[in-house]
Amino acid sequence: MKIAIVSGKDEGPTKLNAFDNALTDAGIGDVNLIKVSSMLGPNAEIVDLPSLKPGAMVNCVLAEVTSDVEGAEITAAVALAIGEELGCVVETSGIDKNPDDLIDEARQMVEYMMDKRGVEIKDLIVKHSTTRVEKIASAIASVVYVDD
């Protein structure tokens, strides 16, 4: 199983446009995203995001936050843990929460999921996106399933 980890942030004239712009900033704005739950196959391989066919149906775990509160700090984060038997992914987001706290929260959640399953973690990665809202902003972080 191959996966890519991406993040993006941007502003827009509406919440939907801000979200779309953040997806585009992350390189996944021209595809149809299918939100899936949080499991990875054994020994998942992390790769750079390949060129995706416009309009393709693409599975992902997606953290997103959008706000129109001027001056607010928004953060979206994903954490993934890879083991030999399987892997887990979590997502979290927040408004005016310390980004380091959200990163720690994501790390703790994914460690718990792996521990609950009795799977040893070989690799643990957290990716996040943080921005301060000017008018309307969105931040996203995503694990994109690029190959089964």
Write structural notes for this entry.
- This protein is an alpha+beta fold and 148 residues long.
- The chain has a single domain (2-147), classed as Pyruvoyl-Dependent Histidine Decarboxylase, Chain B, CATH 3.50.20.10.
- 21% of the residues lie in helices and 47% in strands.
- Strands 2-5-9-1-4 form a 5-stranded mixed sheet. A 4-stranded antiparallel sheet has the order 3-7-6-8, with helices on one face.
- A hairpin with a 4-residue loop joins strand 6 (73-82) and strand 7 (87-95).
- The protein is flat and about 45 Å long.
Our estimate of the beta-strand percent is over 45%
The percentage helix is 10-25%
The number of distinct helices, counting runs of at least 4 residues, comes to 2
Note the run of SSEs as H and E.
EHEEEEEEHEE
Q: What's the rounded overall pLDDT mean?
A: 97
Short description:
With 148 residues, the protein is α+β, with helices and mostly antiparallel strands. The protein contains 2 helices and 9 strands; from the N terminus they run E-H-E-E-E-E-E-E-H-E-E.
Features:
148 residues; alpha+beta; Pyruvoyl-Dependent Histidine Decarboxylase, Chain B; five-stranded mixed beta sheet
Topology:
Layout: E1 2-11, H1 15-26, E2 32-35, E3 39-40, E4 45-46, E5 57-67, E6 73-82, E7 87-95, H2 99-117, E8 123-132, E9 137-147
